[in-house]
């Protein structure tokens, strides 16, 4: 199976095609993190793991796990697009796609509005202005990132995914 074929399967699926498992995923990461202790800097080992996993019912070789924070030191996420929600708290994590146990793709997801919506980190439309910083004119998602965000939202029972995109002013581009 190619990566494009795998992505197509996931894009065409819906929440009923998946079996969700909660609890330990056994998909762990340990990272050394530099922390200050008094006048010295030392390294600590931080543990993180996906807290949920879903297996594709028609082909159990395909699975998605989510919940592993992008940055274990700073799980909070801030971007202009996350500020259109009543609850300004947002945090970022990975949605990892596995095939036959191997990690084959990764989509960063942001839980916005206190976790009510799960949206992939969007692409940015920038307007080039000579001799100046580019001007941000909007955010958008293509089919792959959009499908993963929508699937995670539907698997965990969040609010309306489309409403989340609307509040975040993110355009979907097929």
Keywords:
11 strands; 174 residues; globular; 3 helices
Note the gap between the termini.
Answer: 23 Å
- Apparent shape: globular
> How many β-strand runs?
11
**Contiguous uncertain segments of 5+ residues:** none
Give average pLDDT, whole number: 90
So how many helices? 3
Strand order of the largest sheet: 1-4-5-6-7-8
- Sheet with the most strands, sense and barrel status: 6 strands, antiparallel
H/E order of the elements?
HEEEEEEEEEEHHE
Structural domain count: 1
Secondary structural class: alpha+beta
Helix-residue proportion:
10-25%
Radius of gyration from the CA trace?
Answer: 18 Å
Task: Provide the fold topology.
Elements: H1 3-12, E1 18-22, E2 28-37, E3 40-49, E4 52-56, E5 62-69, E6 91-99, E7 102-112, E8 117-120, E9 123-127, E10 135-141, H2 143-156, H3 161-167, E11 170-172
Parallel strand pairs: 10-11
Antiparallel strand pairs: 1-4, 2-3, 4-5, 5-6, 6-7, 7-8, 9-10
What features would you describe in this structure?
A hairpin with a 2-residue loop joins strand 2 and strand 3. The chain starts with a helix and ends with a strand. The longest helix is centred in the last third of the chain and has 14 residues. It has one domain. It is α+β, with helices and mostly antiparallel strands and 174 residues long.
């Amino acid at each position: 199976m190619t990566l494009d074929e795998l992505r197509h399967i996931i894009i065409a699926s819906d929440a009923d095609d998946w079996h969700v498992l909660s609890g330990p995923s056994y998909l762990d990461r340990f990272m050394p993190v530099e922390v200050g202790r008094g006048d010295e800097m030392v390294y600590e080992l931080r543990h993180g793991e996906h807290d949920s996993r879903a297996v594709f019912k028609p082909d159990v070789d395909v699975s998605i796990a989510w919940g592993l924070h992008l940055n274990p030191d700073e799980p909070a996420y801030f971007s202009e697009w996350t500020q259109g929600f009543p609850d300004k708290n947002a945090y970022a994590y990975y949605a990892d796609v596995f095939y036959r146990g191997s990690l084959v793709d990764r989509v960063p997801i942001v839980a916005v509005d206190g976790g009510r919506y799960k949206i992939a980190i969007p692409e940015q439309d920038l307007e080039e202005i000579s001799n100046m910083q580019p001007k941000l004119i909007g955010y958008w998602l293509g089919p792959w990132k959009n499908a993963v965000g929508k699937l995670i939202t539907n698997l965990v029972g969040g609010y309306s995914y489309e409403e989340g995109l609307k509040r975040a002013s993110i355009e979907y581009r097929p």
